[in-house]
């Protein structure tokens, strides 16, 4: 069947929750109604990246990008664009602060400034069709490795590429593979860590949903290099769509003999099973993950021995993150030299980030290492909404730290981020504006790690709780002299006394906010004041009589009836009755409501 | 299913190559069928169908087909425009399925402009 147009509709979890499946059904129905089913094919794809604006439809070959689709607009799109060839301007992307829409996806700055390796097939293939993956050079790297490279050569190539683990720690992948290969025991296990748990992070989910075969191919190449025979893809149970697509992909690969016995008739056996995670954040830690597959409670254990010597069932095991695996085939196809030209001295290639928080283009971006935070936030992310100022960028999730806006020209690579007190982590990137309280943010992340601590190590279990209590007190106006010093003393104790990365990195959000935003802590403690106007106990709402026009919009919005005054005259807020909900401030058109 | 050999990957890739080129927006030629109300009334949909059938019958992978609106000369519909890189576009008018088939084999496959059906070469200019 020959089609002139492919309507690529994003069916990632984000878009589905915004109604993408209903839009897809409506599209197919309308295309039939207009007798265009022989001309136009609707293709479901994985995430396109600009996730806040879903459901998203990209019409190829023209590359027209439509966003925020609804079932109601579908007949208009089909009639105007598919039948009469007139793209619908009102559904196109308009850059923040501008008026003219950008029709072509290739011209939108969000997409134009990215460099895709791990996400190379996003939006271009149907993840449920292995043939489409193969047509985009899929499984060629596996064929190349199996027919023309020895396992040692594969490892040498990965080492030469400079690829480092994309799950957070940034350990050199080739070296990790070499450790596993040189372990004498058999069988060896190959694991893909898809237990993505950081709040606001969805890089791995997106790769699994958009391009599951890239992970399978990477793992199979890894298995060949290390001598592995069985693989597990450990996907967190909260990702049902990723699990479904992954399982289907595994079956298709088995059907073609790309998994199983005698792959490509080269005498090499490898198979993969999809394992559904146990539902705790700590499962993403490698020794906990192994315990979880074995059927034990997910608790970390001391290392050494490292999994490369004694991992799953006590056998040599290699664990890499989803994004790491998705890079492998490209390195084998294009060569280590090509790959290592991208990035910086110590961080090669690209990194996928999920951009979230106070940013215009929230979504999934893949950028070369060494790009500055400024480029990510402003060129790709489109800046901060509502004309607010940027305050900080949080990288690395609950294990990471806050980087203040005056370090915006920092190069994004493993080492520079570490120097700044944050980490690359798995790629969460949360942008916060000037109306965010940094003490409150640190408290939020600590709340998360406190509740996700498995409780095995005392320092992590008790120490984090103690730190969280201090932050809660500070935010509640009960901070006291010595709190900052105590936090600074507790943090290294928690780090030193914890076995796994959860505890060893959990104090980072507190440490970085103390380092860059100490004045905010001091204002809370010494002046009983929240400079950002967030911590309820420490703030009071009042009305600026100069700015207030007496329109009484705020009077209507106040659930407490705490605002009084004559029409046309400045209004007044009764502090006794005010519950600090902020409703008056939201409705005021004259910015007359002040928070102090 | 039979077990794949390395060389089988090419065969599979060839089968879906047209779809992939289409999604990447790449082709050596682009044929635009003008499908305004006038074009559709004059039979543009049959023209579109004929074009797609020809592409399939000749197993052409690198020619893109697009719909576009009225070209401004409603009395000469159905009309198509053939675009190739570095060449002025060619407009064909008063088309029928047979004329499309002839144009397809001579122009798209053979690279020769069928002057008998062509209105003009080059595009209108805007200030």
- How many beta-strand segments of chain B? 5
Count of all domains of chain A = 5
Main β-sheet of chain A, in a few words? 5 strands, mixed
Name the strands of the widest sheet of chain A in spatial order.
10-9-13-11-12
Radius of gyration of chain B: 17 Å
How many separate helices of chain A?
Answer: 24
- The geometry of chain B reads as elongated
CATH topology (level 3) name of chain B: Glutaredoxin
The CATH architecture of chain B: 3-Layer(aba) Sandwich
Number of individual domains of chain B? 1
The helix count of chain B comes to 5
* Relevant CATH superfamily of chain B: Glutaredoxin
Annotated CATH architecture of the largest domain in chain A: 3-Layer(aba) Sandwich
Determine the fraction of residues in helical runs of chain A and give it as a percent range.
25-40%
Q: Can you tell me the residue ranges of chain A where pLDDT is under 50 for at least 5 consecutive residues?
A: none
Broad structural category of chain A: alpha/beta
Unreliable stretches of chain B (pLDDT < 50, length at least 5) are none
């Amino acid at each position: 069947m020959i089609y002139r147009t492919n309507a690529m509709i994003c069916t990632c979890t984000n878009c589905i929750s915004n109604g993408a499946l209903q839009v897809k059904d409506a599209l197919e129905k309308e295309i039939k109604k207009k007798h265009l089913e022989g001309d136009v094919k609707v293709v479901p794809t994985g995430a396109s990246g600009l996730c806040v604006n879903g459901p998203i439809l990209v019409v190829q070959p023209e590359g027209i990008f439509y966003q925020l689709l609804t079932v109601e607009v579908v007949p208009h799109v089909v009639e105007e664009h598919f039948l009469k060839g007139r793209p619908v301007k009102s559904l196109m992307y308009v850059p923040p602060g501008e008026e003219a829409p950008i029709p072509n996806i290739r011209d939108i700055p969000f997409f134009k400034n990215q460099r895709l390796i791990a996400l190379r097939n996003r939006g271009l293939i149907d993840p449920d069709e292995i043939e489409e993956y193969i047509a985009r050079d899929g499984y060629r790297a596996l064929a190349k490795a199996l027919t023309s490279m020895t396992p040692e050569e594969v490892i040498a190539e990965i080492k030469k590429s400079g690829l480092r683990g994309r799950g957070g720690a940034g350990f050199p992948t080739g070296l990790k593979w070499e450790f596993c290969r040189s372990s004498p025991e058999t069988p060896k296990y190959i694991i893909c860590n898809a237990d993505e748990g950081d709040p606001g992070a969805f890089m791995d989910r997106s790769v699994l949903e958009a391009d599951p075969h890239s992970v399978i191919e990477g793992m199979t190449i890894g298995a060949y290099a290390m001598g592995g025979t069985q693989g597990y893809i450990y996907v967190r149970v909260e990702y049902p769509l990723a699990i479904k697509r992954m399982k289907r992909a595994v079956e298709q690969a088995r059907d073609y003999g790309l998994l199983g016995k005698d792959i490509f008739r080269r005498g090499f056996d490898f198979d993969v099973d999809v394992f559904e995670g146990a539902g705790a954040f700590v499962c993403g830690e490698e020794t906990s993950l192994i315990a979880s597959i074995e059927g034990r409670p997910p608790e970390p254990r001391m290392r050494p021995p490292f999994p490369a010597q004694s991992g799953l069932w006590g056998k040599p095991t290699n664990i890499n993150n989803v994004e790491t695996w998705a890079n492998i085939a490209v390195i084998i196809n294009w060569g280590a030299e090509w790959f290592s030209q991208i990035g910086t001295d110590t961080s090669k290639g690209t990194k996928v980030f999920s951009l979230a928080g106070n940013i215009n283009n929230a979504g999934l971006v893949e950028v070369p290492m060494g790009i500055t935070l400024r480029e990510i936030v402003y060129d790709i992310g489109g800046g901060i909404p509502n004309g607010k100022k940027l305050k900080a960028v949080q990288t690395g999730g609950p294990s990471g730290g806050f980087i203040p806006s005056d370090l915006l020209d920092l190069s994004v690579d493993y080492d520079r981020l570490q120097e700044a007190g944050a980490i690359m982590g798995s790629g969460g990137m949360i942008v916060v504006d000037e109306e965010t309280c940094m003490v409150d943010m640190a408290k939020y992340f600590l709340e998360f790690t406190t509740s996700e601590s498995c409780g095995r190590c005392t320092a992590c279990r008790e120490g984090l709780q103690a730190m969280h209590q201090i932050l809660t007190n500070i935010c509640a106006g009960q901070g006291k002299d010595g709190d900052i010093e105590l936090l600074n003393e507790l943090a290294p104790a928690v780090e030193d006394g914890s076995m796994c990365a959860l505890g060893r990195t959990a104090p980072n959000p507190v440490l970085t906010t103390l380092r860059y935003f100490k004045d905010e802590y001091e204002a809370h403690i010494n002046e009983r004041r929240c400079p950002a106007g967030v911590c309820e106990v420490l703030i009071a709402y009042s009305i600026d009589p100069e700015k207030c026009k007496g329109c009484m919009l705020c009077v209507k919005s106040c659930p407490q009836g705490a605002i009084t005054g004559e029409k046309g005259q400045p209004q007044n807020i009764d502090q006794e009755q005010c519950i600090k909900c902020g409703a008056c401030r939201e409705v005021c058109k004259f910015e007359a409501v002040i928070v102090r | 299913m039979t077990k794949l050999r390395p060389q089988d990957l090419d065969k599979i890739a060839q089968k879906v190559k047209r779809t992939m080129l289409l999604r990447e927006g790449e082709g050596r030629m682009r044929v635009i069928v003008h499908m305004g109300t006038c074009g559709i009334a004059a039979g543009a949909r049959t023209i579109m169908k004929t074009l797609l059938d020809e592409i399939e019958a000749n197993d052409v992978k690198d020619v893109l087909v697009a719909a576009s609106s009225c070209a401004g000369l409603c009395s000469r519909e159905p009309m198509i425009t053939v675009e190739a890189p570095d060449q002025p576009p060619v407009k064909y008018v008063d088309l029928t399925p047979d004329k499309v088939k002839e144009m397809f084999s001579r122009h798209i496959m053979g690279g020769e402009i069928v002057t008998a059906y062509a209105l003009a070469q080059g595009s209108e200019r805007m200030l």
